[in-house]
Amino acid sequence: MQILELPEGSSDDRPPFVLVVDQVDGDAAEAIANAGLTTAELIGARAVLLFEDTIDIPANDTTAYLQQVAEETGATIGKITSAFSAQQLADERTEIARDMDRLASHKAALLDALGIDRTRDWDDIRNAAAGLRKDRDTQAEALERVRQESARIRATTRTWEPVADLIDAALNGKQTEADA
Fold first, then answer.
1. Fewer CB atoms near the end CB (10 Å): N or C, the chain?
2. Cα–Cα distances in Å, from 79 out to 16, 73, 139, 142, 156?
3. Which residue range forms the structural domain that includes residue 36?
4. How far is the CA of 63 from the CAs of 32, 54, 58, 59, in angstroms?
5. CA distance 158 to 33
6. Which of 38, 60, 82 is the last residue of a domain?
7. Triad 69, 20, 61: Cα angle to 5°
8. Angle formed by the axes of helices 122-156 and 63-114, to 10°?
């Protein structure tokens, strides 16, 4: 059973389609034709066409249309995906460039703070920082030894107390009468 759309004419009030029924045997066709109300009137069609064989109405074949729509949809999705991928790649490149600029400015600041020329690489910066830490630790140990010696001198004898006072003043960054 298929519906065949018909073109509408001007001032045409008739229904715009015909019902096509195929593979109908002779007895069924005769019963449909002899019905009190015509089948066309019952369903609101202009007419009913009955055929014993199979009838294909090309206007009702939508597979070609669906294939075209599917191809167009696939192409559109492909364009959207590639545009999205291209934008993602551009964003990544921009982010990488920003990170590299940030790293370069941090490196320059570290080199300046360490007093190293700007042609050095990260290994040189790391080695310089390790050297500074080692020097700091060595100086802290020496300072602690001097403090301990000052305390030992003070505890040992009173005659060495002025020397211990000078050592304490030097350790605390105070000027003594002899320095002034």
1. C
2. 40, 10, 67, 71, 90
3. 2-60
4. 31, 18, 10, 11
5. 141
6. 60
7. 15
8. 40
b/e per residue 151-178 (b: at least 16 CB within 10 A): eeebeeeeeeeeebeebbeeeeeeeeee
Query: Could you tell me if residue 179 is inside a domain?
Result: no
Domain membership flag for residue 180? no
- The tally of domains found in the chain comes to 3
For residues 115 and 66, membership in a common domain is answered with yes
Per-residue pLDDT reduced to its tens digit, 37-76: 676 777 777 778 888 888 777 666 666 667 777 788 878 8
**Would the pTM of this model clear 0.70, i.e. be above it?**
no
Q: Choose the final residue of a domain: 60, 81, 108.
A: 60
